[in-house]
Amino acid sequence: MSRLAAELPAPTGAKPARAGRRRRNRQERLAYTILLPALGTVFVIVTIPFVLAVWQSITADDGTLIGLRNYARALSNPLFYDALRATGIYAIIVLPAEIFLGLAFALLVHRTVKRPGLRATLYVLAVLPLVVPPVAVGVVARLIYAPGYGVLNYFLQSAGLAHSEVEWLGVPVLAMGSVASVDIWQWTPFVYLVLFAGLQTVPRERRCPGSRSRRRRSTAPPGGLSSSTSSCTTSARSFC
Predict the structure, then answer these.
(1) Distance between CA 127 and CA 125 in Å, rounded?
(2) Would you tell me how many other CB atoms lie within 10 Å of the CB of residue 91?
(3) Residue by residue, what is the 3-state secondary structure of 185-210?
(4) What's the predicted TM-score (pTM) here?
C-alpha cells in the first residue's frame, strides 16, 4: 500500500499555486522597478533638504557643532510663541474651511452633475489654482488687498459699503483673514479632487435593511482614506 501511494502522481493543484506565486513575484518586482524612479526623486527632493535643515539647526554659521543651542535660543524668544500662536490660529481657520467647502462641492458635483464633459471641465477648473505658482498668487492677492490700488477697496467704495480704504494687510485680524482666504481659494480644489475621487468608489446601489424597497440608491460620504489624505495634507501644509 505504501509503495502504491508513493507511485501516485502529486496533486496538480501545487503547480498552479507555485506558478501563481512566481507570477505575483514578477509583478511585484515590476511594480517596485516602476516606482523606483519616483521614490528616488522623492528622496532627493524631500529627504536630503530635511537632513540638511536638521544639520544646520545644530551647527553655527561657521559650521561648528553647537548641539541644541539654537533650539534653546528659539524657545527663549517670545517671537517664537507669537509665531506658533499665529500658525495655530491660521490652521484653525484654513483646515475646517477647506475640508467643508471641498466636501460640499464634491457632494454637489457627484449628485447633480452627470455629464462627463461637464465633470471634466470642472476637473480642469479645479486644477488651475493648484498649478499657479505661489509668487503669482501673492501678486494677485496684493492687487486685491493692497491699499491705494486694491481692487477690493475700489469695489467697496464704489458700492458705498466703505467710505475710506480698509487696511486689509495692515490690521493683524484682517491680515490673517486675507491670507487665509487666499489659501482657501487655492487649496480647496485639492480637497475637492481627493474627496470626489473617493466618492466615485462608493457603490450607487446599496441594500438598506428595514426599508420597504429591497434596493435603494444611496450616496455615502467619501471613504476614510480620501478624507484622511486630504486632512493630513492640509494640516501639514498649514504648518509649513
Answers:
(1) 5
(2) 17
(3) HHHHHHHHHHHHHHHCCCCCEEECCC
(4) 0.66
Q: What is the CATH number of domain 78-238?
A: 1.10.3720.10
Classify each residue of 1-29 as buried b or exposed e, where b means 16 or more C-beta atoms within 10 Å of its C-beta. eeeeeeeeeeeeeeeeeeeeeeeeeeeee
Q: What's the confidence (pLDDT) of residue 1?
A: 47
Q: List the domain boundaries for the chain.
A: 10-76, 78-238
pLDDT digits (tens, 9 = 90+) for 26-76: 788 888 888 888 888 888 888 888 888 889 888 988 878 888 888 899 899
Distance CA 66, CA 55 (A): 10
What nine digits make up the cell of 132?
A: 499657479
Question: Environment class of residue 74 by beta-carbon count within 10 Å: exposed (0-12), middle (13-18) or buried (19+)?
Answer: middle
Q: Report the run of H or E that residue 163 belongs to, with start and end.
A: none
Question: Amino acid identity, residue 221?
Answer: P
How far is residue 219's CA from residue 205's CA, in Å, rounded to a whole number? Answer: 8
